[in-house]
Design goal:
Number of helices of chain B: 7
Largest sheet of chain B: 6 strands, mixed
Largest interface: A-B, 28 and 33 residues
Structural class of chain B: alpha/beta
Oligomer: heterodimer
Strand content of chain B: 25-35%
Bound molecules: adenosine-5'-triphosphate, magnesium ion
Radius of gyration of chain A: 35 Å
Strand order of the largest sheet of chain B: 6-7-8-3-9-10
Shape of chain A: elongated
Largest sheet of chain A: 6 strands, mixed, barrel
Structural class of chain A: alpha+beta
Order of helices and strands of chain B: EEEHEEHEHHHEHEHEE
Number of strands of chain B: 10
Chain lengths: 827, 220
């Protein structure tokens, strides 16, 4: 058959609208994949840069000795921006009676490269974030230093040998969280003043931080270049490690976004499969006629091959354009609503779209068309002769395998792929099994029901095989939608639980035992509820089983057991939110010398249950036996302790207390009064950090909603094309029924019942699949606890039934509005 | 020449094996015309389908122009049809997506003929459908569809033409015109005609007449 004939054929097919349906499915599939994945990609890069604010940079080189100059030069040569900060503990002196140990941080122009530095001109005054840093010759102090040092604005103080003027208060540093429990309140100064202080010398305890930011590729390249050059006491801090809580949130959000993208791929494949199946079915007769006129298999295969290839190329191109336009329009339309400034999308989404289209065309659209070549001309004489079904299994296997491969490639996560695949397998497996059983059961039940039911159920059964497939596709689409909704709510629920709205946002340390009644009185007078008081004593573990541990500075590798210092506390019950991983808890009347360790701490000192520790508090030395190992949820905003003793062991040692409380924004002045009556206590303000974290989480949650909406839309479109794929047969039957005298109500009722039953069964399958997939996802990908979602079990079938029935009736509405003769002529 | 020997066709149905054709033997010389008449359900269409190679016999042999159909595979039979055979289906079998003209052009295009459109137009004119070239089959009446199907079969000017009730839906005058066309083809290029018909006039004009009854064929 000549090319011109293929061309003619294509034009004629196009005119008849048959190719249009296939093209539409393809464009839909490609645009969903391209749209979702570029939207997701842009959000992802935006979220990542959002989290960079907790590092104040995209990458930080941390070093205990001063940094090589060429590292900075190299970074700048690669188009990266840099800024240096230097941190060290120091005494600062305001006057002979007022001095304090502070944690100094000197910063240079550009700090912070990401996020904002918040400051105020008075201790707890109006917060500003205008990109300023302390100018040379000036310092900004943590609010409580003002009363501790008894200074006000424009007073001067000494840092080492440098005299500096107080010009503001530091309220929040983007990268402060790592040093929250540092060496004392913050003093922020300019790096240009460092030489004057004379404090920073070789051997002194200093941390240099080179902040680096710029385009992701340049940052990665720099990271790769630098990693092998790092020496002892040097390391790289990356965004992922900057803020474990945010890191976790982002990881999960990322997992979710990738999941969404993979689902888009599956939905796309489903849409294409449905459309090409319909195309193939409608063309069986066509091919039979061609064959009876003398066309040979190879000719016919070529005909459809050329058509499909042309269609595929055109559809892919259009899909890419539409998908691109979709996400661009989406982002434009959302504008300010969007949580973060979206990053660039890159070429990857297009590649993914093209590959998805190629795979779908090759493995889902082509097989039914290729088999058209083998259609027997006999079906011209007998309508009941279709295409061999048995050959299809192989295609489905190859197709499914390729989709799994695509998902894997796309998500880069075996766990995500596995979860979705297991859900889908449940749907498919159960689907074909249950569908047939239910369908054959349907006739028996229908025998007792009214005539509409009988006709409807008989119809369902007559097209049993097609219906089973349709039901499975419906179920898959519904399952993916349910799955994403379930995962979304549990993620958001989890995030909100992490940062409950009433969580304490201020911590108070170094409270002497005799001061506790003062504090309690002070706070309750102002209507601030006080949380529990925790006893706290600084102590050190220096040997395990009588074997002395080396000090931190003496060990070379991170893995060598070493001495550690920590805040000790006592408790006769397992602290809230802690999990025993080994051993058991002591009872209140058990007077033994026990100790319970946090698991990482236990690793650091190289001790396990049953080992005897030698400990020192101040000058006193004592021993305790490890009774248990605990897992501590560091993400909780509660005071957490590495080392816990029974009350009887620790009570006799002198100690301080810590507590936490929650202040509302308009109660901040309470702190000024508090540090006047209790000048020695340390207040840690977490309200700003918590607010920022909550903002990020809210933004992430909103991004997830958006993606969910897009996927729901795509799923809906698959349902529509699923309904459409069965329209021909249903329309014809309905038209016949009307021609034979059935009333409007009977025809509509029959269709309604058919779709209702199909939809409800699809809903049940979908729910089962969604539960399985959610289970796998929660456990393997999101590290969350899975619990069955009971609402799903009635909501899934209900939604399925209503949705499918409405769509079905809407698509078939012509049946009752068009004269049957017209319909019969058409189909 | 068409030669059939010991042709058997059985199909399996829900109620067991059904013998549709039970040992058929006959011959139609090249350029001759033959009519097959018989009661509804006696197996006429089944026989015609087998003769055109669109189905395979359970046993027995069919020769078309010297080629034994049972020695050919599906594609070779298709090629044979493309080269030599025209077929008018009892149920027309027009492609709904194509216009009248395109339907008639299709076999010409499949055979790679260059002036497909002109030929198709001419034959549509012959059956009186010159005003319906760009209509779609679903908008045509039954008789009009039948004439399109006839034009499609004639346009190729085949060596052998099978027609299943070619005049079944036509009024007397149009029917006569179609009969004229058939025999014109038979005269002009010696097309072998095998016609299934209930039409007495048509059967009478054929050189041979066979009677099909319950799967058995006898020369009348
Ligand atoms: N594949 C099949 N399965 C079951 N029965 C078949 C099959 N093919 C043909 N038959 C039966 O064989 C018989 C002959 O059919 P055929 O179409 O050849 O009849 P016909 O002589 O052309 O009748 P008519 O004049 O009504 O067109 C019919 O009873 C038909 O039902
Ligand atoms: Mg017949």
């Amino acid at each position: 058959m000549s090319h011109s004939l293929s061309g003619k054929f294509l034009v004629r097919e196009w005119r008849s609208g048959e190719l249009g349906i296939l093209l539409l499915a393809l464009v839909l599939a490609v645009s969903v994949v391209v749209g979702v994945s570029s939207f997701v990609g842009r959000l992802q890069s935006a979220l990542l840069s959002e989290s960079a604010r907790f590092l104040a940079a995209d990458l930080v080189v941390v070093s205990r000795s001063s940094l090589q100059d060429d590292w900075v030069e190299r970074a700048e040569a690669q188009g990266l921006t840099t800024s240096l900060s230097v941190g060290f503990p120091s005494m600062t002196v305001a006057d002979p009676d007022h001095m304090a140990l502070v944690s100094v941080k000197a910063v240079s122009d550009g700090y912070p490269l990401r996020g904002t530095l918040q400051w105020s001109s008075e201790a707890y005054g109006q917060v500003q974030s205008d990109g300023a840093i302390p100018p040379p010759g000036e310092v900004w102090l943590a609010p409580r230093l003002f009363s501790l040092l008894d200074v006000t604005l424009d007073d001067s103080l000494l840092v080492g040998e440098a005299g500096l003027i107080v010009s503001g208060a530091v309220r929040s540093e983007p990268d402060a969280t790592a040093a929250v429990f540092g060496f004392g309140p913050r003093l922020l100064m300019n790096t240009q003043d460092i030489p004057d202080t004379g404090v920073v010398q070789p051997g002194s305890r200093v941390e240099y931080r080179l902040l680096v930011s710029g385009p992701p590729e340049a940052v990665t390249a720099y990271e790769e270049w630098l990693t092998p050059l790092l020496g002892q006491g040097q390391r790289l801090d990356t965004i992922e490690g900057a803020q474990p809580r945010i890191g976790n949130t982002l990881d999960r959000a990322q997992g979710f976004l990738l999941l969404a993208g993979s689902l888009a791929v599956v939905l796309a494949a489903a849409a294409i499969t449905l459309a090409s199946r319909r195309f193939g079915e409608r063309h069986t007769q066509y091919v039979a006629i061609l064959k009876s006129l003398g066309a040979q298999s190879a000719q016919i295969s070529r005909l459809y091959g050329v058509s499909l290839a042309t269609l595929g190329a055109g559809g892919t191109l259009m899909g890419c354009v539409v998908g691109w336009g979709l996400q661009e329009g989406f982002i434009r339309a959302l504008g300010d609503l969007l949580p973060v400034t979206p990053g660039p999308a890159g070429w990857e989404p297009i590649v993914i779209g093209v590959v998805t289209a190629a795979v779908c065309m090759l493995f889902f659209a082509w097989p039914p068309l290729r088999r058209l070549g083998q259609a027997s001309p006999l079906s011209v004489l007998r309508a009941d002769i279709g295409i061999e079904e048995s050959q299809r299994a192989g295609d489905y296997v190859i197709g499914a395998a390729s989709i799994v491969g695509l998902m894997w490639w796309y998500s880069g996560s075996a766990a995500v792929t596995f979860a979705v695949v297991s859900g889908l397998s449940v749907v498919v497996g159960l689907g074909f099994f249950v569908a047939r059983a239910l369908l054959s059961g349907g006739r028996r039940a229908g025998g007792f029901a009214g005539s509409i039911w009988r006709v409807a159920l008989a119809g369902l059964q007559r097209r049993g095989r097609a219906n089973a497939l349709q039901m499975v596709i419906f179920a898959m689409a519904i399952m993916l939608m349910l799955l994403l909704s379930v995962v979304r709510s549990s993620l958001i629920g989890q995030w909100q639980a992490q940062l409950p709205a009433d969580a304490p946002n201020h911590f108070l340390l170094n409270l002497a035992p005799e001061e506790t009644p003062v504090l309690e009185g002070f706070l309750s007078e102002r209507g601030v509820p006080v949380e529990a008081l925790y006893p706290m004593t600084r102590g050190r573990v220096f040997s395990v089983n009588q074997e002395a541990l080396p000090e931190w500075r003496e060990v070379e590798s991170e893995d060598t057991p070493r001495q550690r210092e920590a805040n000790f506390t006592w408790s006769d019950t397992l602290p809230e939110g802690n999990l025993l991983v080994e051993g058991d808890w002591w009872s209140a009347d058990d007077a033994g010398a026990w100790v319970s360790l946090e698991e990482d701490f236990a690793d650091d000192i190289g001790a396990g249950v049953g080992d005897t520790l030698s400990l020192r508090i101040g000058a006193e030395v004592f021993e305790a036996k490890v009774r248990s190992i605990r897992q501590v949820d560091w993400q909780s905003m509660r005071p957490n302790f590495y080392v816990v003793f029974p009350r009887s062991v620790l009570e006799s040692y002198p100690g301080m207390y810590m507590t936490s409380f929650r202040l509302l924004p308009d109660q901040k002045t309470v702190l000024n009064q508090l540090i006047e009556i209790l000048p020695t206590v340390t207040v840690i303000e977490l309200d700003i950090v918590i607010r920022e974290m909550r903002a990020v989480i809210d933004q992430v949650a909103r991004a997830l909603e958006l993606v969910l909406a897009v996927i729901l839309l795509a799923g809906g479109l698959v349902l529509v094309s699923g309904v459409r794929s069965s329209l021909d047969a249903r329309m014809k039957e309905s038209a016949l029924m009307r021609a034979l005298g059935a009333g409007r109500r009977t025809v509509l009722g029959t269709l309604w019942i058919e779709f209702l039953v199909l939809g409800a069964m699809a809903g049940i399958l979908a729910t089962a699949g969604a539960e399985v997939a959610a289970w796998a996802l929660q456990r393997q990908v999101f590290n969350l606890n899975w619990a069955p979602t009971f609402t799903l079990w009635w909501l899934g079938p209900l939604l399925g039934a209503v949705f499918v029935a409405t769509l079905g009736l809407w698509s078939c509405r012509r049946v009752v509005s068009t004269p049957p003769v017209v319909l019969l002529r058409e189909v | 020449m068409i030669k059939v020997s010991q042709l058997l066709k059985t199909v399996s149905t829900a109620d067991g094996e059904l013998e549709i054709l039970r040992g058929i033997d006959f011959e139609v010389p090249s350029g001759a015309s033959a009519a097959i008449v018989g009661a509804s359900g006696s197996g006429k269409s089944t026989l015609l389908g087998l003769l055109a190679g669109m189905d395979v016999a359970s046993s027995g042999k069919i020769w078309l122009d010297g080629e034994c159909l049972s020695d050919l595979d599906e594609d070779q039979r298709a090629r044979l049809r493309a080269e030599k055979v025209g077929f008018v289906f009892q149920s027309f079998q027009l492609l709904p997506a194509l216009t009248t003209l395109e339907n008639v052009m299709l076999p010409l295009e499949l055979a790679g003929m260059s002036d497909a459109a002109a030929t198709a137009e001419r034959f549509l004119g012959e059956v009186g459908l010159e005003n319906r070239l760009n209509h779609y089959p679903t908008t045509l009446s039954g008789g009009e569809q039948q004439r399109v199907a006839i034009a499609r079969a004639f346009a190729r000017q085949p060596r052998i033409l099978f027609a299943d009730e070619p005049t079944g839906n036509l009024d007397t005058r149009t029917g006569e015109r179609v009969i004229e066309l058939l025999f014109e083809l038979n005269d002009r290029i010696e097309t072998t005609l095998v016609l299934v018909t209930h039409d007495q006039r048509l059967a009478e004009r054929c050189q041979h007449c066979f009677n099909m009854s319950a799967g058995e064929l006898r020369e009348a």
